[in-house]
Amino acid sequence: MKDNDRKKLLADNYIEMKQEGKRIAMVTAYTYYQAMAAQEAGVDIILVGDSLGMVELGYDSTVPVTMEDMMIHLKAARRGAPNTHIIIDMPFMSFNVSVEKTIENAGLLYQKGLADSVKIEGGTEYAGVINAVYKAGIPVCAHIGLTPQTSALLGGFKVQGKTLDAAKKLVDDAIAVQEAGAFMVVLEAVPASLAAIITKKLSIPTIGIGAGIDCDGQVLVFHDMLGLYKKFTPKFVKVYANLHDVMEKAIEEYVQDVKEGNFPEEKHSFTMKKDIIDKLNEII
Ligand code: KIV
After folding, report:
1. Which residues line ligand 1 (CB under 6 A)?
2. Nearest-atom index, ligand 1, CA of 49
3. Distance (Å, rounded) from C-alpha 266 to C-alpha 69?
4. Quick one: 37 exposed, middle or buried, by C-beta within 10 A (0-12, 13-18, 19+)?
5. In angstroms, what is the span from residue 110 Cα to ligand 1's centroid?
6. Which pLDDT belongs to residue 154?
7. Which residues share a beta bridge with 184?
8. Mean pLDDT of all residues in 257-273
9. How far, in Å, from the CA of 282 to the mean position of ligand 1?
């Protein structure tokens, strides 16, 4: 579906979608062409996630990702999807040092990078920071459950909230970020039944990734759903295409064509007048 003429949705529109029972489809994108494909496919919202550290930059985690990395990818995605709401992840250490620094960094991404909102990982502990950014006039999407930037403190990339205490903490986190002003919350790697309770309790939409069917919307990482990232595919991913294999096969064919002299063909080449070539041959 070509969807380049639609009006960009704002934070309140997603809350209305929840009220109307309309599911929200989000996908990550990190480049001009990825964002363009996402917009043309009709997604409701694009996340320029710091997962780009792994799937685009080849790091082992999201921790090394910087504000500069996020800004470059945000601007590229913005050019590719001018009519789609873009959430930008605040990278590790861009919101963990002080409230002032957080507002400054969120402001850069919002004002200079032209993001429509920022995403901050963390629950109750970061409610104050979320509230400060919200009060500065920048819409905030929260992210609780498995928070990859602090996965070292969560026992690695593991499902969260499975004990009574942990489940209660996640419910408290969700309420805290909503009260702090977040317009949306990502629930990552949370048991489906717990995500359903949180979704029912909140007035803001929940966006699940590994959080079951009852969330108000879903998000998948571009490279995971399209089979572009071969290192690891989490259980919660549905793979819609195997683009890595398609790309590898195409490049293999190209290499073979070059080696065997089958590329370029005449149709890929430019022509010029034969008499000029003949004269050139005479003078060289
Ligand atoms: O960075 C990212 O892609 C994310 C999603 C996993 C929600 O935060």
Report:
1. 28, 47, 49-51, 89, 143, 186, 188, 209, 219, 221
2. 1
3. 42
4. middle
5. 18
6. 87
7. 141
8. 98
9. 64
Per-residue pLDDT, 4: 62
What does pTM read for this prediction?
0.95
Indicate whether 194 pLDDT > 70: yes
Q: Average pLDDT, whole number, for the chain? A: 96
Q: 89 - beta bridge partners?
A: 119
Q: Per residue in 53-106, pLDDT tens?
A: 999 999 999 999 999 999 999 999 999 999 999 999 999 999 999 999 999 999
Instruction: Write the DSSP assignment of the chain as a string of letters.
Output: ---SSSPPP-HHHHHHHHHTT--EEEEE--SHHHHHHHHHHT-SEEEE-TTHHHHTT--SSSTT--HHHHHHHHHHHHHH-TTS-EEEEPPTTSSSS-HHHHHHHHHIIIIIS--SEEEEEBSGGGHHHHHHHHHTT--EEEEEES-GGGGGGTTSS-----SHHHHHHHHHHHHHHHHHT-SEEEEES--HHHHHHHHHH-SSPEEEESS-TTSSEEEE-HHHHTT---S---TT------HHHHHHHHHHHHHHHHHTT--S-GGGS----HHHHHHHHHH-
- pLDDT (0 to 100) of residue 156: 83
Q: Whole-angstrom Cα distance, residue 247 to residue 224?
A: 15
pLDDT surpasses 60 at 2: no
Cα–Cα distance between 44 and 39 in angstroms, integer?
8
The CA-CA-CA angle for residues 206, 65, 140, to 5°, reads 30
